[in-house]
Amino acid sequence: MAADIDFSFLDDPEFGLPSYFKPKQDPMEEFNTLLTQEVPPIREFSGKDSEEAKKLFKFAKGTTTLAFVFQGGILIAVDARATMGSFIGSQKVKKVIEINDYLLGTMAGGAADCYYWENNLARVCKLYELKNGERPNVGGAAQILSQMLGQYRGYGLSVGTMIAGWDHKGPGLYFVDNDGMCLKGNRFSVGSGSIFAYGVLDSHYRWDMTLDEAVELGRRAIYHAGHRDAMSGGVVRIYHVHAGGWTNIIQAEDLMNIHRQRDAEKGIEFLDDEVTFNS
Amino acid sequence: MFATKNEYDRGVNTFSPEGRLFQVEYALEAIKLGSTSIGITCQDGVVLAVERRVTSKLIEPSSIEKIFEIDSHVGCAMSGILADARTLVDHARAEAQNHRFTYLEEMLLQSIAQSVCDLSLNFGEGDGSQKKPMSRPYGVSLLIGGVDKNGPALFTTDPSGTLFKYKAKAIGSAAEGAQTMLQEEFKTDLSLEDGVKMALRILKQVMEEAITSQNVEVAVVSTQDKIFRRLTPSGVEEYLTSL
Amino acid sequence: MVKESKQSQFNPYQNNGGTVAAVALGGRVAVGGDTRISVGYNIISRNYCKITQLTSKAVIASSGMVTDAQNLHKLLLARITLYKHQHGTEPSLKALSKLLSITLYSRRFFPFYTFNLLAGLNEEGQGAVYGYDAIGSFDELKYGVQGTGQELCMSVLDNQCKGANRTDDYTFTQDPVELIRDVFTSCAERDIYTGDAVTVWDITAEGIQQTSIPLRRD
């Protein structure tokens, strides 16, 4: 019977409007939340209806990051290019986020997402430390991050990060992504250039490497990724995680430097190696 | 309605005809029951020193914690109800970390102390939620000391939400005696070392029990590295023997 | 009537075009923004200033959608006023850089359609520029460009400010204000959304000087 159907939605003046278009009940609400917010309020941005709108935003992305555990600790190597479509937004992005004196996080996916949530992790870790008198271990920190991201699952966050640090169990390396995945491992590479980096990493990795060998491996892997992946490049940055915290071993080395060095080793004149003229 | 004067203390937010808030005044009394705490600003840092009242020899002295770290550059000593202090300290910690998160800088001491005061007077009937977590005044006074970009500083807060900046201040049961001694001994060119010694010397005189490295707690924040540090019992012992 | 079919067409954003640029050199930073506003191919304003002064030492320059930029600037000014009252001082450039990032990210799921540059003098008195994407990813730079003329201007600034990939011995000594003017006059020649005039804000320890330089008006 028709009477069973609830037609009250016809009286709703806002029926059919997208959620973000609905006027707020309290016009100051959003202002207030912006002043005191801890995490961004969840409001659905479009889903299927405005793919067009999404395309307007060229969020910074594209990356090669890698980290591996070896006898001397953990080595982290990253590139520094940020691409927005085909435009290079920056060649010297800091893709290693210094969460605090004993934790590092890498950045792959949405730069703002990684930066915001890893900073949030720093805040939570410090409060944990003040409350409990000791720092959370690396696995705990990674788990906290993955839970924070898990709460926003399906909302389009883009995060692929490696959390590296040292706790009472020794080195800890975890991979965390935007779906809330949290994996422990000895060797990870994330980003569009990871396929190239993995190739170098897997074929030359040994547990008993010295620190110098490890640095060279990380540098090489990033170099090859930057060479073959158009979305990666810029400079290479290398960090070493050890019992005393972390050290920034290479602050910023231009990938062109490495390229010239390799050419020199092979006796190739710069820019003269691959060009063939049509004559 | 109010037959006798005493009945004006029934409601926590009821003024007496003379303009007094009795519940707040009673809370101030609670502090006078607490152990003595001393804070001194020196030329190169801030000292916080607290008496631990070990009421039974079966108590583990190290479990009595009356100095808290608020952020890496700020510490806080308390007198009064310990549990109330924890609520205020938790609030201050969250504020300090939120400030770091939002502005990428350490929070000013004055702002941290002010945020504690904002919570201090936020008592009364409520739903027990975050907005109004407390039904009565907090029976605690805090000495908030540390180093920020303006140099070393020391603030006190009390149940009425009043905030004062001090060069040196004592709170708790022996506050009066200790404050007189501070007044006599304080100099503006005090070094951190001398500050620690002065705080211990005063505590030694006002404490009922004999002072040992077990029944006092000392923390410093130096201008050199702006890091909050607790003194170890052996560190305190060294100072005590030099007195 | 039930409004049903509108939903799938709804797009809350438009790009009103325009370019903003900033160059820092030593204790000085020059910020420029053109004054043209467009909707599609129609030019609807020729004298809109894309730059707002935030503190005595910092300005924000935004391109993208004008309504969002105006809202963002007002929101920032409100938060800076609150900061001043709470902490008794103006926020430093570094504090502002993070505040802007957080403010942008607070709208992560319905972003401000703005591309921003924050420029000013830091606590050491050195000029600095911060570049942002729409949701708060940011980086400290020596020079930056945002907006429809980004691709045109950036390569010139790379060459002039950084001497990127140059093989000769080069150091940047040019007057930053002059460079901003050159970049905008060049950009107006090739970008339909950039033109009319450029407002240049010259920030030094002495204060902020504003000038306006005419550009092509076609």
Rg calc of chain A:
23 Å
Major beta sheet summary of chain A: 5 strands, antiparallel
Could you estimate the helical fraction of the residues of chain B in percent? 25-40%
Cross-sheet strand order for the largest sheet of chain B? 8-1-2-9-10
Going by helix content, strand content and strand pairing, the class of chain A is: alpha+beta
Detail the poorly predicted runs of chain B.
Answer: none
- The CA-CA distance between the termini of chain A, in Å, is 85 Å
Strand content of chain A: 15-25%
Task: Output the number of helix runs of chain B.
Answer: 6
Shape of chain A: globular
Percentage of β-strand residues of chain B: 15-25%
Separation of the first and last Cα atoms of chain B: 59 Å
Average pLDDT of chain A, rounded to a whole number, is 83
Structure characterization notes:
The complex is a heterotrimer of chains A (279), B (243) and C (218). Chain A has a single domain (63-268), classed as 4-Layer Sandwich (Glutamine Phosphoribosylpyrophosphate, subunit 1, domain 1). Helices cover 32% and strands 25% of the residues of chain A. Chain A has 279 residues and is α+β, with helices and mostly antiparallel strands. In chain A, strand 7 (160-167) and strand 8 (170-177) form a beta hairpin. Chain A is globular and about 80 Å long. With 243 residues, chain B is of the alpha+beta class. Chain B has helices at residues 22-33, 82-103, 109-120, 175-185, 192-206, 233-242, and strands at 37-42, 45-51, 67-71, 74-80, 140-148, 151-157, 163-165, 168-171, 216-222, 228-230. In chain B, helix 2 (82-103) crosses helix 3 (109-120). With 218 residues, chain C is an alpha+beta fold. In chain C, 31% of the residues lie in helices and 33% in strands. Chain C has helices at 6-9, 66-87, 93-105, 150-162, 176-190, and strands at residues 19-25, 28-34, 37-39, 42-45, 51-55, 58-64, 114-121, 127-132, 138-141, 143-147, 197-204, 207-214. In chain C, the strands form 3 sheets. In chain C, strands 10-1-2-11-12 form a 5-stranded antiparallel β-sheet, with helices on one face. Chain C has a 5-stranded antiparallel β-sheet with strand order 5-6-7-8-9, covered by helices on one side. In chain C, helix 4 (150-162) packs antiparallel against helix 5. The longest helix of chain C has 22 residues, at 66-87.
